[in-house]
Amino acid sequence: MYMLQVKNLTGGYDHKKAVVRDLSFGIERGHFFALLGPNGSGKTTIIRLIMGALPVHSGDMILDSKPIASFSQRELAKKAAVMTQENEAGLDFTVEEIVMLGRYPYQKSLFFQESTNADKKAVEDAMVQTSVWEYRQRPYHSLSGGEKQRVLLAKALAQEPELLLLDEPTNHLDVKHTMELLDLLKKLQKSTNLTVLAILHDINLASLYADKVGLLKNGEFAGIYEGLHLKNESSFTDVYEVNMNFTYHPSVSKTQISLAPDYIHEGNSDLMSAVQVNKMAHSTYVNLNQAFRTLSAGTNGKGFTWSKQWIFTHDEIADNEESIVFTSREPHMLWSITENSRESNPESLSQNHIIKNQSRYSFIVIVSYSPLDLDIHIAILTDAPLMDRDLINLSLKLNELKIQSQKTNGTSSKIAIGVRKTPNAPRLTDLDGIFESAGELLKTALKGLREQHVSIR
Questions:
Q1: Strand 354-357 vs strand 363-369: parallel, antiparallel, or unpaired?
Q2: Which of 68, 56, 9 minimizes the C-alpha distance to 221?
Q3: d(CA 126, CA 113)
Q4: Are the CB atoms for 307 and 293 separated by under 8 Å?
Q5: Bridge-based pairing state of the strands 195-199 and 163-167
Q6: Angle at 96 between CA 91 and CA 97, to 5 degrees
Q7: Rg (CA), the chain
Q8: Less Cβ crowding at N or C end of the chain, within 10 Å?
Q9: 67: exposed, middle or buried (C-beta count within 10 Å: 0-12, 13-18, 19+)?
Q10: Residue 85 above 80 pLDDT?
Q11: Structural contact between residues 277 and 284, judged by C-beta atoms closer than 8 angstroms
Q12: What would the pLDDT profile of 348-361 be if each residue is shown by its tens digit?
């Protein structure tokens, strides 16, 4: 059952120019609906239209099965409350007096001289729920920003609303107070069946707390989503005009959103120039001029991380956060580069270690034997724009090819795949082709490794 239904709503600050146009959405009773969108997209206008603070040009708004236009101001205030962004009260009120202001729909006297027992109980309950009861006699202006926000929430809850409207409730709050406030809202939503409509700027918070999300652009809905999912990435990128990366949250069943500033990738070179190989007596160091997104699995694998150095060595070397260490014999390296790659080949490589290809992407395949049981380490570096899920699938394919090649599945090897990330990289349209190319290169590299091993012996 819908607590609030908005049908074809158009309205704004005057009757000549609409801010929002033809909006339709519904919020089920006891649900949390978040409004998202760039500045000026119409989020605050929607709340003001609902509360009658701005003129409606056309459309219908229905609150608990009754048209909002049919409510008096007091009746509407008993059904719906707004938590504002204000941090200062006009007068030097105590916290309890501020919260008592929320009882105005039930008061007969303008100055609250006839507070009833019901008023006092509602105010006390609201202050206890929001953990501001201990501040009830303190001046409002003496509180911290987070405490003031909780007082304003208590004031709204004192109205005993069924619908709570929040205009950027976490504005000016630090991380701790932001989480405390939204945790409290979810607790109230679940325990009292409160319906929440909140304007949020933080997309990650909307993903974590909202049951449904409405994305606004230029006064119209670009989409309404039952939670955020990986498939929504392109829509949000288009609306906010910023490249966004939607991934699975590592500890809860939600989606998290990350941004990559352009300055981090300034001066990017091609893969050939991004990798430097230094050979020493018992070790080969592969140094990367930027951190590569890396998946490493197998013996001492780190899972997903960022790495700037891969070390193939007989020696005992202390691991660190940015290195991937392979306990191995001398590695065999095969470079597959595009026709446009610069000829900055490492001196340690002979020409038969370099293959030109016609694709848009380059690869470096490094294979080596473990000194323990001659199991094979596989390492691949690439500039193909692979996602984390692609790295998992590619590692499985490479491991299968390795097993087929050596006819056994050793226990001392490692597989690592590193991706050089670049801004605004085009989406892959031929993932199967990338996997096939990597597989063929691995087969060629394994053949070279066997020939190298025979010649050394």
A1: unpaired
A2: 9
A3: 20
A4: no
A5: parallel
A6: 35
A7: 30
A8: C
A9: exposed
A10: no
A11: yes
A12: 444 446 776 666 78
Rounded Cα distance between 340 and 358, Å, is 9
β-strand partners of 407: none
Closest alpha carbon to 173 in 199, 147, 151, 155: 147
| Spatial distance between the Cα atoms of 417 and 293, rounded to a whole number of angstroms | 8
Q: What is the homologous superfamily of the domain 2-259 according to CATH?
A: P-loop containing nucleotide triphosphate hydrolases (3.40.50.300)
Backbone φ and ψ for 183, nearest 5 degrees, come out as -60, -40
Contacts of 279 (CB under 8 A, 6+ apart): 285, 348
CB 375 within 8 A of CB 327: no
- pLDDT for the residue 374: 75
Q: Record the pTM.
A: 0.82
Distance CA 150, CA 205 (A): 18
What's the rounded mean pLDDT across residues 384-391?
Answer: 92
Structural contact between residues 141 and 151, judged by C-beta atoms closer than 8 angstroms: no
What tokens appear for 357 in the block?
A: 């290809």
55-64, 164-173, 410-419: which has the highest mean pLDDT? 55-64
Percent of the chain clearing pLDDT 90 (strictly above):
59
CA distance 262 to 162: 45
Tell me if residue 337 falls in helix, strand or coil: strand
Within the chain, all domains assigned CATH 3.40.50.300 are found at 2-259
Q: How far is CA 108 from CA 111, 114, 116, 271, 332, in A?
A: 9, 7, 10, 75, 87
Segment 196-224 mean pLDDT: 97
Helix, coil or strand: residue 271: helix
d(CA 281, CA 312): 11
Of 302, 297, 286, 292, nearest to 398 by C-alpha is: 297
- How crowded is residue 238: how many other Cβ atoms within 10 Å of its Cβ? 14
pLDDT band at 86 (very low <50, low <70, confident <90, very high): low
